[in-house]
Design brief:
Number of domains: 2
Helix content: 55-70%
Shape: elongated
Radius of gyration: 20 Å
Strand content: 5-15%
CATH class of the largest domain: Mainly Alpha
Strand order of the largest sheet: 1-2-3
Number of strands: 5
Structural class: mainly alpha
CATH topology of the largest domain: Four Helix Bundle (Hemerythrin (Met), subunit A)
CATH architecture of the largest domain: Up-down Bundle
Distance between the termini: 23 Å
CATH superfamily of the largest domain: HPT domain
């Protein structure tokens, strides 16, 4: 898995290559990658090129794959794609953030804000949970969920929604809240590693 064909194109030349559609930047990448090898564009159901863009990619020899990529297995450049979702390790890597935000500069800028904001929000959430302040917990969970949704980390979004639902239904804080806080802290620490 690579983020820049200009950095790694020579190493990967003459192989089957793929681009996972995430937005307009992935469309650009799918147009460039055929210079290095046979290219598939995995549509993911998230971003559909318009007819003109699709024609351009077809003229470049790009094939389209509707089956979503949900997991990337393998080591080094000998990756194999299968159905699944990116795992937590991928979500904490700089390359994942570049995929979401389009460039290393943008990924780092967003990650700095994300780290500081999530750090403050988690501290406040921990205090609110320990004091059983349900309204504050709900407000902070909602705010954190927005950031997690931008990052497309669905398994954490679902856990946040489960905590929100639990608070709403039972009017109390349970252990899943503290487990979620630990997972979010681990995410934030992992991001901090490549920010430093």
């Amino acid at each position: 898995m690579i983020h820049c064909p200009y950095c790694h194109g020579y190493e990967l030349r003459n192989r089957s290559l793929g681009v996972i559609a995430t937005g307009a930047m992935s469309l650009h990448q799918a147009g460039v990658i055929p210079d290095w090898g046979v290219t598939s564009y995995f549509l993911q159901g998230k971003y559909q090129p318009d007819p003109e863009q699709k024609l351009f990619l077809q003229q470049r020899g790009v094939s389209f794959e509707d089956t979503p990529v949900v997991e990337v297995l393998g080591a080094g450049h000998m990756s194999k794609t299968t159905q699944s979702t990116l795992n937590t390790e991928d979500e904490t890597s700089l390359s994942y953030w570049i995929t979401i935000f389009g460039s290393e500069q943008d990924a780092i800028a967003v990650a700095n804000v994300f780290y500081d904001t999530l750090n403050a929000d988690l501290s406040a959430l921990l205090i609110a949970a320990e004091h059983k302040d349900l309204n504050k917990c709900e407000a902070l969970l909602h705010k954190i969920k927005g950031s997690i949704m931008v990052l497309k980390i669905d398994h954490l979004r679902i856990k946040i929604e489960n905590c929100e639902e639990s608070i709403s239904n039972t009017k109390q804080i349970n252990n899943s809240m503290f487990t979620l806080i630990r997972e979010l802290l681990m995410l934030n620490r992992s991001v901090k590693v490549w920010l430093d």
